[in-house]
Amino acid sequence: MKPNKVLVLLGSPRKKGNSAILAEQIGKGAKSCKAEVETIYLHGKKIAPCKACMSCQKKGAKGCAIKDDMQEIYPKLIEAGAWVIASPVYWFTMSAQMKTCMDRWFALRAYQKDPYRGRKIAVAMTYGGEDPFDSGCVNALRTFQDAFSYTGSDLVGMVYGSAVDEGDIKSNRKLMQEALELGKRLAKE
User: Using CB atoms within 10 A as the burial measure, which of 14, 53, 105, 128 is most buried?
Assistant: First the structure.
């Protein structure tokens, strides 16, 4: 694991969407602290849902039994010391692209013993409406908190805000600054 490598996972179908903009800002903060940042745009990747075959959990497993685009993502997840999870809120939680990818992380233990412990995580979420509660954003945030607490990962921080039209999030200067600072903390801690 490279402590100064940050892997950004974009879970929106919009490459230049609001959650991607927040993630990019986190990346800028990390880069300002000399971190290496790589971004993966999940939409359009061929990532099948986990089929609960348990092959990846068997003694001597060589990885996930499903041969799709996750095979190129697994080594990047293992290599990076920090992950940025970026997603818009879709139907009161994270996007399907992000959830499908995260479900497949179950196989990470076949690639590395205890792949989550100590891994630094930052989350960037955007939602329509004005309230993180009635938009469902809080559901996704809670999922991340619970998952990364369970895995022993270090949830360094979360940034989230309201934006509907592509690029709207840029007008929230306070949030953009928070995202930049989160990236710096991600690279330093």
Answer: 105
